Amino acid sequence: MRKKNLEIFEHAVKLAGSGKYENWKDIQKELVRKGYGKAPDLLGGDKIRNVLDFQCAHARDKSA
């Protein structure tokens, strides 16, 4: 179970770093679409949301 959670977090960070997503909400939608049904629960905390939002913004700035 723990390994699956880690996989979801790692995938979320990878998506955030891609520059293709605006914020954590977009990443959460993509993860759910890909079959990670636990994503909304795992991305429910402010800390992870802030990290993902920061990473999204940073990645988009780098690609601009």
Task: Write structural notes for this entry.
The structure is a single chain. This protein has one domain (2-63). Helices cover 73% and strands 0% of the residues. The protein is built from four helices and no strands. Helix 1 (2-16) runs parallel beside helix 4 (46-63). The longest helix has 18 residues, at 46-63. It starts with a helix and ends with a helix.
Indicate the topology.
Elements: H1 2-16, H2 24-33, H3 39-42, H4 46-63
Percentage of residues assigned to helices: over 70%
Total DSSP E strands: 0
**Largest sheet geometry:** none
What structural class do helix, strand and pairing data support?
A: mainly alpha
Number of helices: 4
Summarize the helix and strand pattern as letters: HHHH
The average pLDDT value, as a whole number, equals: 95
- % residues in beta strands: under 5%
